[in-house]
Amino acid sequence: MKQKLGAPFRWFAGLAARRPGAVVGGLVTVVVVLAAATATLFVLHFRHQADESATAEAHTAADSAVAELLTYDPETIGKSVDRYAGLVTGPFGDDYTRLLKEVVVPAAERDKVATKTDVTASSVIGEESGTVNVLMFLNQTSQSASAPAGAPAGSRVRVAMENVDGAWKISGFTPL
């Protein structure tokens, strides 16, 4: 028993019988368009995952770098300047290293200042042009020869992170 086809299928069957090359060409075009769309979606998905991974790496690097930069003791700070300089970059890095050498190290050694910094909370607040911005909440305790009990303080900072040769470094530091 022969089954009747609906109008769209009858039209397609008639076209296939009259012009088989047109049908094959149309199907090839559809397959190519679908393959291109699939490839585009795959690339966009991969880029999105790569961006999320880079953002997470920058966030983790910011947490550890800020805690390290703002934690020091008078016995080791002078020997740590090069290590600290490796955590920063750009004009901020130059300014921070100069401040460290000219002000912080002499004062810490002279007044026996030790500072401990803990990152209590942080979150990525934006990213643009390869820079990831992180909002951080810090708790710091500083002790010195004149204040051995320590003075706790809390602060908020915005930290800009840039990827330099595969390593995330601090390129900006703004107290809020």
Distance between the termini: 82 Å
Number of β-strand runs: 4
Number of H/I helices: 4
Q: Estimate percent helicity.
A: 40-55%
Gyration radius, rounded: 30 Å
Give me the side-by-side strand order of the main sheet: 1-2-3-4
Q: At CATH's second level, what is the architecture of the domain at 39-71 and 112-175?
A: Roll
Low-confidence stretches: none
**Relative strand content:** 25-35%
Element-level helix/strand string: HHHHEEEE
Determine the mean pLDDT.
86
Structural class by sheet pairing and helices: alpha+beta
Overview of the structural elements:
The protein is of the alpha+beta class and 176 residues long. Strands 1-2-3-4 form a 4-stranded antiparallel β-sheet. The chain has a domain at 39-71 and 112-175: Roll (Nuclear Transport Factor 2, Chain: A), CATH 3.10.450.50. The protein is rod-shaped. A hairpin with a 7-residue loop joins strand 2 and strand 3. It has 4 helices and 4 strands; from the N terminus they run ααααββββ. Helices cover 51% and strands 29% of the residues. Helix 1 packs across helix 2.
